[in-house]
Design brief:
This protein is mainly beta and 205 residues long. It has 1 helix and 16 strands.
Length: 205
C-alpha cells in the first residue's frame, strides 16, 4: 500500500503540473495582444517572435502547410506586414509602391531611387529576385515568369493585333482573323516563346 502511494502521489502531481502549465510556455501567439508588429499576417501565422528588428513566424501557405519565415528590418516597413503564401512580406523603400498586378505574386517589395525591387514567383513556383527601373513604364507593372515588366510582352502578335494591354498578368488584344475580322482575345502575358496571333487568338507558340 505504501509503495502504491509512493508511485501514485508523484504521478498525480506531474499530471496536475501539465494540466496547469501556463499558456506562456506554449508557442508564441500572433493575436491582437501579442507583442509583435501589426499586420494581416496575424490572422494566418503563429509562433510569432519579434526581436532586434527581425520578425519570425510560422505562416500558413495556400495549401494549408505552415512555413517558417523571417522578415528582416520590419521597422522599415511602409505598409502593414502580410502573409504571402507562407512568407512574411511588406513594402519598404524611399517611395510608395507603384500600382500593378505584380503585388499578387511578388514579395519583399522595395522602391529605392526610382527602381522597384522585389522577389517574384515564376511559373514553376520558384521565387526570383527582380528589379525594374520605373522611369519608362507606360503600362501597369506585372510579373511575367518571375520578371517585373511594365511594357507589352514581345511577340509577333504585334504585327496583326491592336489595342493590346496587360492586366492582372493577362495580355488582352484585338487580333485579326484570316477573313479580316477583328476578334477580342486574351492569353497569359508570361511566355518564354513567341506570343503570336493564331487566326484571331493569342497563343504562346
Amino acid at each position: 500500500m505504501n509503495l502504491f502511494r509512493k508511485v501514485l502521489i508523484p504521478l498525480s502531481a506531474a499530471l496536475l503540473t501539465i494540466v496547469l502549465m501556463p499558456a506562456s510556455s506554449a508557442a508564441a501567439s500572433c493575436g491582437d495582444n501579442a507583442n509583435v508588429p501589426a499586420g494581416s499576417y496575424r490572422q494566418s501565422c503563429d509562433s510569432c517572435v519579434a526581436s532586434g528588428g527581425t520578425l519570425t513566424a510560422s505562416c500558413k501557405k495556400m495549401n494549408g502547410v505552415h512555413n517558417n519565415t523571417t522578415l528582416y528590418k520590419y521597422q522599415a516597413c511602409r505598409s502593414g506586414i502580410e502573409n504571402m503564401d507562407g512568407y512574411l512580406t511588406c513594402a519598404k523603400g524611399d517611395s510608395a509602391l507603384p500600382t500593378g498586378s505584380y503585388k499578387a505574386s511578388c514579395r519583399n517589395l522595395n522602391v529605392e531611387k526610382n527602381t522597384l525591387y522585389a522577389t517574384c514567383r515564376n511559373v514553376n513556383g520558384d521565387w526570383k529576385e527582380a528589379s525594374l527601373p520605373l522611369g519608362y513604364c507606360n503600362y501597369e507593372i506585372y510579373n511575367t515568369n518571375g520578371v517585373l515588366a511594365c511594357t507589352l510582352p514581345y511577340g509577333t502578335y504585334q504585327r496583326s493585333c491592336r489595342n493590346a494591354r496587360v492586366q492582372n498578368g493577362q495580355l488582352y488584344a484585338e487580333c485579326k482573323t484570316r477573313d479580316g475580322a477583328w476578334a477580342n482575345t486574351v492569353a497569359p502575358a508570361a511566355c518564354n516563346r513567341d506570343l503570336a496571333n493564331d487566326n484571331g487568338m493569342l497563343k504562346c507558340l
